[in-house]
Input
Amino acid sequence: MLHFEKLKLTNFGPIQGTKEFVFNKGLNLLCAKNGSGKTSIVSAIEMLTIDNYISSYENYINWNEDFFEIELLFSINSHKYIISLNCKKGKNNTLSDRVLKEYETQEEIARGDNVKEFLSKLIDPVTTKFALVNKQDKSQDSIVKCSDSERRDLFKRIEDVDLQKEVDSIIEEKLEVLKNNIIQIDKEIYRLENCTYIYDPIKDLPFSEQEYTSKKQNFENIKTQKQVLEERNKQYEDKVKEQTKVLEEINSITNQMKNKNEKIDKATKEIENFNSSLETEIGKNEQSINAYTTQLQKKKQDSLDTKNKLQIEKEQKEVNYNEECKNRSEKINDIKVFKLKPFDNNVLLEISKKLAILENDIVRKENDILSFQEGKCPTCGQDCIHNLELSKKEKEELLKQKEIVEQEKENLLKEREEDTRNKENKELKEKLKIELDQYTKEMESYVVTYSSTLQNIEESLLKDIENINVLVQKTKDSLVSFKSNIKVAIEKELGSIEEYKNDLQILETSFTSTSKRHMDICIWLESNKIETFNKENELYDLSQVLDSYNKILLENENTKTRNENLIKEEKANKVLLETKKKEKQGYLQEKYDNEQAKTILLKEFPNYVIESTIENTENEMNQFIENIYYKSLDVNLRSTKTSIKLEYGTGKRKVPVSKLSGAESQIVQLSFINKYNSLLDLRCLFMDEPDAALDDDNKKELYDSILNLSEYYNQLFIITHSEKIKNYLLSYAEPTIIEV
Output
């Protein structure tokens, strides 16, 4: 949803200087004379949001200036932005700068062409320019005046149908894969067609199979002799290792026995340390309890001293309070306030005016007397002296009246002075009473604070006594717990000593048996010696001869297997070559099919994709026209292979809407904008001179439709110079009036 809040224009179009326009939710009415800048407001909004303008920025600069600045505060789906555009004429060209910012943080989002790119993701400029503004003289961006193919493209954008994207993302990608597959298959076919097969020959054996058997039997006998000798020697080495291991066990048992004796000594010392720690802890706890008792006595004395000090301070405060109350009461009683009638300044003003009039009349009469004394009439200038005495009498009468009025004014001034003095005394008396009440409240507050402080001191002392008693009890409990822990620890150490003594007995028994084993091993080693094998060279020679024979035999087997595999590979490659050729034909056919599909999608768009939107739009356009026009135009949106035609007329006789009159063309345009605005969910519409092409019979129906539209749209802007539409809307609604 699109919402505009504030627009600021400087030297833009007919507007010279700076003007700011604030827009509200609901119906906004811009009513002014032609040429005042109404349409410039719409042009500025279109220029900033969807980059829609005529020719160049320079055309929008005021004739008397060399630059313009425009700034717009708006929101899209409740997210607020500020966009500004500055344009200045240079010597050879026009310089411009467009900036988009976050409203809340004032952080710059984009600048220059990047602003257009960023906004196009939020508001599609191509579709929005057809739905945001309905202008009286809109010669472009009009559903009525655009071409049939442009109309079809517009409906495609409504449904977000961009088959070029589909082609690029699916078919083009698939064609690229097919192209790579064909290249790979061509490489594989070339490899298979140029593959060579080389067969290896069979080698001759160095001697017969019977000689091989004899040599092998001799080799096995010598090898058996070597194994028997090696096993006997290995048994001797194992006994030596066992002897070493038994010696290590004897040393280990000796060390363990030594360790157990040391642990018994250590445990005995620990028991002595535990008894010493217990005595020390008992002394510390007795010192702590004495310190807590001394601390408690000090806190009691401090509490008593504080209470005595507060009692003396309270008594002094009460004496001062009673004396101060007496002085202030006497001062209040000394001030006299009288009950007077309220003074009326209007009477004094009337008397002053009356006195000024009399003074003017006296001056005028004196001038008349001078004229009569010279023999001239003060009115007509003719010779005249017969009214001289009358003028003198009138002057004397005016002087008497002036004297009376001056006396009245003097009396009134005295009354006003008495009234002012009485008011001041009354205010002073009230102020002193308030101060006395405040002083009394302060004293009462002090008494409450005093009582609260005494209570806090008592509670604090009780809490301190409780805390110290708790600490004393904790100290005693700690000593009991410590004694218990020491007892457990001593018992544990005594148990450990008993356990170590049992372990020593077991170790002594193990030491005796292990020593006997060591003696038996020494006797066996004395009776058995290591022997040396003297047929190593003969065994090695036989091994080399047999290995050579087996190697040639294995190579011949491998050669035979490899040659058989080559024969199978040659046959398999011939079959694979035929398969790859068929696979290539399949890829070529699939490539052809995808190229045909690409041609169909880009040149022959399937209109059934947007058929439901076309039908829905047609029905709502006709319904809108029937609501605001005296007759049905029976508008028809007819889709062809390459376009969507917009026609009207009843029955089979359909005529292009370009044949409509100016008023009917505007009605059709407005019906489409209303529907299109709903599809895009803009909920914001500008109507520029909407009743310009209508006669008086249809204007009222249009005005009623505007009132109905204002209930649907979040913002509806009516730009007009017509007083009729202004008065009508003011009679039936409460629009925001925007002065231009």
